[in-house]
Amino acid sequence: MDLGVAAALLRISSAAERFEVRRELGSGGMGVVCEAFDRQEGRTVALKTLRAGDDRNLLRLKHEFRALSGIHHPNLVTLYELLSIGDDVFFTMELIDGVALLAWLCVASEDEPNPSTAPTVQLPGALSSAPRPVRATGALPRYDPVRLRDCLRQLAEGVATLHGAGIPHPIPWNWRSG
Q: pLDDT digits over 7-59, tens only?
């Protein structure tokens, strides 16, 4: 975990007795998402905070929350609250319990390890933050076409919901709703 993010999460955990930050779930260019327990609401949530607190990223985080907070669809996470503690701004959202998408899509057989136990490789460039499962031979795994079609259908339904609400995807940092 990036030291700046770790420090922000530590401040959030200690300043707000409300949240117990448990583990990092993922990160991107703008921020990091962690699993946290919300003591006030009595539920486990995903908590998204900024990697660096510059004004542009702060604006992007707020825009993301405001644009998506009123959207409800089975294929989109529900956003709960936009909060600030000191200089740290973050939002909470529904935590989805499941397996990694690639693990769910992969075909597992006697001679092909399940991707959840297969070794991973880091790819260069833009894909470097996305570990991909590989077989011992180094070849990419095969995917179950039925699961892949279902996944793409659900993705299209979620994006169509966003577009139907007038929200472009991805959300431009300077986009303003209606």
A: 666 666 665 688 888 888 888 777 888 899 999 999 999 998 877 667 777 88
Q: What is d(CA 76, CA 99) in angstroms, rounded to the nearest whole number? A: 16
The secondary structure element, H or E, covering residue 33 is strand 31-38
What the block records as the tokens of 14 is 């200690």
Cβ density class 2-37: b for 16+ within 10 Å, e for less: eeebeebbeebbeebebbebeeeeebeebbbbbbbb
Structure tokens at 102: 């690639």
CB atoms within 10 A of CB 148: 13
Strand-strand pairing, 31-38 and 43-50: antiparallel
71 and 29 inside one domain: yes
Query: Whole-angstrom Cα distance, residue 105 to residue 60?
Result: 31
Looking at residue 16, the DSSP 8-state letter turns out to be -
Residue 176 lies in a domain: no
CB 133: neighbour CB atoms within 10 A?
Answer: 20
| Count: domains in the chain | 2
Domain region containing 122: 101-158
